[in-house]
Amino acid sequence: MGAALLCSFVLLGESWAQQPAQTPTPATAPGAAQTGQKTESDKTPEPDKPAKLQNDRIFWTLPNFLTVENASSAPPMTVGQKFELVARGSFDPVEYPYIGFVSAIGQAEDSEPAYRQGWGAYAKRYGVAFADNTIGNFGTGAIFPSLLHQDPRYYQLGTGGAFHRFLYAGSRIFVTRSDSGNKQFNFSELLGNGLAAAVANAYHPAPRTLPNSISIWWTQIGSDAAAYELKEFWPDMKHKLHPQSARM
Asked: Residue 46 to residues 43, 49, 132, 166: CA-CA distances in angstroms?
């Protein structure tokens, strides 16, 4: 959460996109026969360019594929796209050392004391952390968004004060969009991490109690909240640290 709080002090603004100028409609000569050609007024206006999923990495390392920057809407994702992008992020090469780092912290803090210490204990912590992360990602980003027709992407706000944006990012734990673009309660976030916490009882050491499951569930949600803060403020940080890279 420290990185998220640091991000909240970024005060860079975002520029507004200019609206295209409208061209006057040419007059049609009276009595002219229709030739099948459309005048400017008959042409269907071109839709706004769809926002692209970011082929981006936070701090140039962590996958940031399910983020839409500088756009208020984007075409809906198919079920296949939801699973594809979640798999792409969950099994990205960077995830393996990241999970290793998280497991090392758990080893130092002696989390899951039943594992004790040593390389064997570290391997168990690594496997548990990787399973928790992967199941949580698929639950919140693919399984429940597909079943409930919700959009798993994070839409960057990008404008307004830092505190307002900080609150917006944190609120995405509870607020999301449907595939049609309407605001909805984020059942996918809560149920997806609930699934991960329930399945965790099959491979986490005892005690397998309700408070332990709630602890895992809450930890997963807190991790996602921190990730939303990074998704919101990373473009600002990237622009300040490397202006040319941010414009690409």
From this structure: 9, 9, 44, 34
Q: What is the Cα–Cα distance from 101 to 174, expressed in whole angstroms?
A: 29
Residue 106 phi, psi (nearest 5): -60, -40
Q: How far apart are CA 94 and CA 100, in angstroms?
A: 10
- State the pTM of this model: 0.70
Average pLDDT over residues 225-238: 90
Q: pLDDT category, 139, cuts 50, 70, 90?
A: very high
Q: State residue 225 phi and psi, 5-degree precision.
A: -60, -45
In a domain, 168, yes or no: yes
Q: Is residue 178 domain-resident? A: yes
Q: In this predicted model, what pLDDT tens digit does every residue of 9-26 receive, in sequence order?
A: 333 333 333 334 344 444
The 10s digit of each residue's pLDDT in 76-103 is 999 999 999 999 989 999 999 989 998 9
- Whether 11 is in a domain gets the answer no
The domain containing residue 225 runs over which residues? 57-246
Contacts by 221-225, CB closer than 8 A, 24 or more apart? 221/173, 221/189, 221/190, 221/193, 222/1, 223/136, 224/136, 224/140, 224/173, 224/189, 224/193, 225/1, 225/4, 225/169, 225/170, 225/173
Report yes or no on 194 lying in a domain: yes
Are 201 and 213 within 8 A, CB to CB?
Answer: yes
Overall number of domains in the chain: 1
Percent of the residues in the chain that have a pLDDT greater than 70, as a whole number: 75
